[in-house]
Structure prediction request, 65 residues.
Amino acid sequence: MAYCQKIKDTDHLNQVMKSCWDMINQKLINSAIDQFDRWSKRLLVVRSQDGHIEHHPCNSVMFAY
Prediction:
């Protein structure tokens, strides 16, 4: 829907965004949230030696001492 018409102004953009949002099935949204919840529990966040943050799947992390 958003790509079917040229957006005229911010009010029109607001209307288009609301109508697109209303068309999204709530089950799809809930499923995406559930998948993220399951995925995020398997993620380990570690600080590397040079100070930046890295994300690793919990089952494949190797620690170097």
Summary: Residues 10-60 form one domain.
